[in-house]
Design goal:
By secondary structure, the chain is mainly β. Helices cover about 10% and strands about 45% of the residues. The protein has 2 domains: about 20-55 and about 290-415, Immunoglobulins (Immunoglobulin-like), CATH 2.60.40.10; about 60-280, TolB, C-terminal domain (Neuraminidase, 6 Propeller). A 5-stranded mixed β-sheet has the order 23-29-28-25-26, with no helix packed on it. Strand 19 (about 250-260) and strand 20 form a beta hairpin.
């Protein structure tokens, strides 16, 4: 009997000594649902900054163009076509023009000579680069547009209908993409910052989208204007508005914006001044979107502040120790971060999923949560990893994420042996040791009694 009780007591002590570190969430998951942004509530940190976007200055941006009827090179602000400035004379028949992706060089293709060249913005003089090659003889280059990534496109009209090409701006070599035989009068093309291409077909006076991979066109809708001869069309890349310089004949024209959903033209100016205009807007798409973030996770003992270290040591002892983790996210990209989820390998989901908060480029957001660490072991190391994920919509694609770790260590005091640790914890473990001692005495007494009886 004594042997059994002693063995049971020994197993109990060993099992207690091997207990793993346990964690109890003192505050539970962070609840920031009361606001639509991370507010300074004592749990959630402030948002420093506002959502950022490309400035919408479109109506006062500048367009350059050609009055083909009067042989003039002109400029005007987008909201003041009648107030145009005559820069110089130009008698070249330039029906296809557009700025490069930096909005510094104005390219054009001459209808008369078939050459690719550039226009001097100060004088209007056309300087040829090279004759366009790759377009069948007899086909006419009707439109030109240059995408945000620098890819240049031209449209050609001929026996195959409308053929879409890419063109090398250095060599003037055109490479066919594909043709649409039903769109033989696609008189101009324009592409926006998202890579969506549109075309104006004067056979049915309608706007089309054009697949840049195949050249096939899909109807958007009629412009509502009976247009003839050369036309102009280009996007204001600062706000995505499509402008059109339409010509009806005899000097009559309408300048305005195109509804991308219906194709309808909204006139901003009619016959003021008279002329046949081709134009290009001098704006850029800005830098490509690059969402990114940096997560910094820290740990400390003060629940009221974010600590400055990601590793701490806590006092030795049997009782639990409350530690406070801080999760600090810095928006290091150029895109506003909106839908946030924060998880911790040990604490679970702390924010979200897809918590709504607008954190603009350069801004930051943070929150804290406190936790009690408890273990009967004299030493332990607790490491947990947090991940901050941002999506483009609720349940959408991940656009940015980062992770960071924090470490809590409890060490034996210097010069204290493992055998001494039991004395340090005597108060906490007194009931256990007392029970064990009592079991030993009872077991010894029972064994002795049995021996005497025998």
């Amino acid at each position: 009997m004594f042997k059994r009780l002693a063995l049971l007591t020994l197993i109990t002590v060993i099992a207690l000594g091997l207990l793993a570190v346990t964690i109890v969430a003192a505050d539970g998951p962070v609840d920031c649902s009361a606001t639509t942004a991370l507010a300074d509530t004592g749990v959630c940190g402030p948002v420093d900054g506002e959502p950022s976007s490309v400035p919408a200055v479109g109506p006062t941006d500048t367009a350059y163009g050609l009055d083909l009827r009067n042989s003039l090179f002109i400029s005007h602000t987008l909201n003041n076509f009648p107030g145009q400035t005559v820069i110089g004379s130009n008698a070249d028949q330039l029906f296809a023009v557009d700025f490069d992706e930096t909005a510094t060089t104005l390219y054009a293709v001459s209808f008369a000579t078939g050459e690719l060249g550039t226009l001097d913005l100060a004088t209007g003089v056309f300087s040829a680069i090279a004759a366009v090659s790759g377009v069948p003889a007899g086909d006419n280059v009707s439109g030109m547009t240059i995408a945000a990534d620098g890819t240049a496109y031209i449209s050609g009209l001929g026996a195959a209908g409308m053929t879409l090409y890419t063109i090398d701006l250095t060599s003037a070599v055109a490479t066919p993409i594909g043709s649409d035989p039903n769109r033989g009068l696609m008189i101009d093309i324009a592409i926006n910052c998202e890579g969506d291409m549109y075309g104006h077909d004067i056979s049915d006076d309608s706007i089309y989208t054009i697949d840049t991979a195949t050249g096939l066109a899909t109807l958007v809708g009629p412009t509502g204007v009976n247009s003839n001869f050369a036309q102009g069309m280009d996007f204001d890349s600062s706000d995505g508005t499509l402008y059109a310089w339409t010509y009806q004949g005899g000097g009559t024209n309408q300048y305005g914006t195109i509804n991308l959903a219906t194709g309808a033209l909204t006139p901003l100016s009619t016959d003021n001044p008279l002329g046949e205009f081709e134009g290009a807007v001098q704006t850029t798409c800005g830098e490509p979107q690059a969402p990114s973030l940096v997560l910094t996770k820290t740990v400390g003992l003060d629940p009221n502040v974010c600590a400055t270290t990601d590793e701490i040591s806590i006092p030795a002892g049997m009782g639990g120790t409350e530690v406070t983790y801080c999760y600090y996210m810095q928006n290091t990209g150029n895109v506003t971060l909106t839908f946030h989820t924060v998880t911790d390998t040990e604490l679970g989901v702390l924010l979200g999923p897809d918590f709504l908060a607008s954190v603009g480029p350069g801004a930051a957001a943070w929150f804290t949560t406190s936790t009690v660490l408890a273990s009967p072991l004299p030493t332990f190391t607790w490491v947990n990893t947090a991940t901050w994920v941002v999506r483009d919509d609720t349940g959408g694609s991940i656009i940015a994420s980062d992770y960071d770790m924090a470490t809590v260590t409890r060490n034996m005091p210097t010069g204290v042996a493992l055998s001494d640790f039991g004395a340090e914890m005597s108060t906490s473990l007194a009931p256990l040791w007392l029970a064990a001692l009592l079991a030993l005495i009872v077991g010894f007494g029972l064994a002795l009694r049995r021996k005497v009886t025998n």
